Amino acid sequence: MDAENILEVKNLRTYFKLDEGVLKAVDDVNFSIKTGKTLGIIGESGCGKSVTAHSILNTVQAPGKIHGGTIYYRTQAGTELEITAEKSNGEVMRSLRGREISMIFQEPMTSMSPVYSIGHQMTEAILVHEKKRDKATVKTAQDKAVEMLNLVGMPNAIQRFNDYPHQLSGGMCQRAMIAMAISLNPSILIADEPTTALDVTVQAQIVDLMLKFQADLGMSILYITHDMGVIAETASDICVMYLGRVVEQASTEVLFRNPVHPYTIRLLRSIPKLGKKIPGARLDAIKGNVPVPLNLPAECGFVSRCLEVKQGICDGGIPPMVEVESGHFVRCFLHSAREAD
Ligand SMILES: Nc1ncnc2c1ncn2[C@@H]1O[C@H](COP(=O)(O)OP(=O)(O)OP(=O)(O)O)[C@@H](O)[C@H]1O
Ligand SMILES: [Mg+2]
């Protein structure tokens, strides 16, 4: 592993073997997360973001399976661990999840149990990695849970401790999820669209909260979203995903200054710009949806929706990843062709 990285994903392929054929949800994906930094993964619905996150946690559900590639993680003890060589429910992965690599999800209501109070769920999450369950250990875990609820700005944390998820607003529930996710001081927080279900003001508060914890605890973050605006604010590096592949990769500064892939350019054009209202101009939404990656031909995934498509150039198989400037990679025939000129 590179010394500055905490996680490296190499040639990851995660497939679902279905009756209809092989669904390539993640198809030869490469990226790394730098220690203490945020990597943003951006792309529309269905492009393979959540399956990538589950591959890192080694929690891909059958009929899904990691078919190829490796994921390396630098543990808190300093060893380089090959996650892809571990059993999903083996001791190593179980001790890693929550304690070293933690995840917050799109929908807090679906990832928190409706039948237990949030305090109970948080306490259990803290106790999972404890060997003992005596009164004192439980009390310490409960105190820690209240402390975490206070830290994430939950008003009346002690009272909220006994509330059930349905008694909390979406924003409060998401705060409780963050409190739970960071209560064990993880090295990596995987945030899978953590603010999509929230209104913009609450969304901004949640993003600020994650950034604050990152600064305080030195956490690395994998931030998954389809919101370019949020990614601009949080990530130091960005991977743009389309149909199971990374199509463009660069530092945030470079990607916003010089987006190259037609898909990235369209994603950027779809964000409204405050104070830049051009009369008659419209936001450029990308028409259509990401196709389902089932029995796909070996071609550029974006070819069916790309406005720049060129006959005789874009129909020649899967474009290779090429470096267009230092540290800036793109998978597009228009650029590999230009490179070769
Ligand atoms: N359990 C499953 N069984 C079959 N196909 C699946 C399963 N989970 C995901 N997929 C497929 O894998 C592809 C990638 O899905 P994924 O959930 O990673 O998308 P995503 O980028 O997270 O989208 P969203 O923004 O909607 O969350 C999709 O085509 C999806 O239909
Ligand atoms: Mg998802």
Q: What is the H-and-E element order?
A: EEEHEEHEHHHHHEHEHEEHHEEH
Low-confidence segments, given as residue ranges, are none
Globular, elongated, flat, extended or rod-shaped: what is the shape? globular
Question: How many helices in DSSP terms?
Answer: 12
- End-to-end CA span: 34 Å
Largest sheet: 8 strands, mixed
Number of strand segments:
12
Strand order of the largest sheet: 6-7-8-3-9-10-12-11
- The helical percent reads 25-40%
Would you kindly provide a written description of the structure presented here, covering whatever features stand out?
It is built from twelve helices and twelve strands. It starts with a strand and ends with a helix. The protein has helices at residues 49-57, 91-96, 108-111, 118-127, 135-151, 157-160, 170-182, 200-217, 228-234, 252-257, 262-269, 333-340; strands spanning 5-18, 21-34, 38-42, 64-74, 80-82, 101-104, 188-192, 220-225, 237-242, 245-251, 322-325, 328-330. Helix content is 32%, strand content 24%. With 341 residues, it is an alpha/beta fold. The mean pLDDT is 89. Adenosine-5'-triphosphate is lined by residues 16, 23, 25, 43, 45-51, 61, 64, 226, 292-293.
Keywords for this structure?
single chain, 341 residues, alpha/beta, eight-stranded mixed beta sheet, four-stranded antiparallel beta sheet, 12 helices, 12 strands, 24% strand, globular, binds adenosine-5'-triphosphate, binds magnesium ion
Question: Care to give the gist of this entry?
Answer:
With 341 residues, the chain is of the alpha/beta class. It is built from twelve helices and twelve strands.
